[in-house]
Amino acid sequence: MANVTTHIADAGIRGGFYNFFQAFGRGMTAYMERRSRADQVAALNAKSDAELAKLGITRDGIPAYVFRDLFYV
What we know:
The chain is an all-alpha fold. The protein has helices at residues 13-35, 38-46, 49-55, 62-66.
């Protein structure tokens, strides 16, 4: 059994664009993962309605509460 690997070096401006957008994509992914608020939404969904009432929110209002600094409704 044989394994064959072909590597074609991509030099020039096309390689530069590829590397730039690849790094940009990795950076955006890391940024969005850090800003994810899914854990906050899950924690609030796990609370009872009485606990949510103490916070002054309803179950339907959880997304608005979590993202209140980003959106004005």
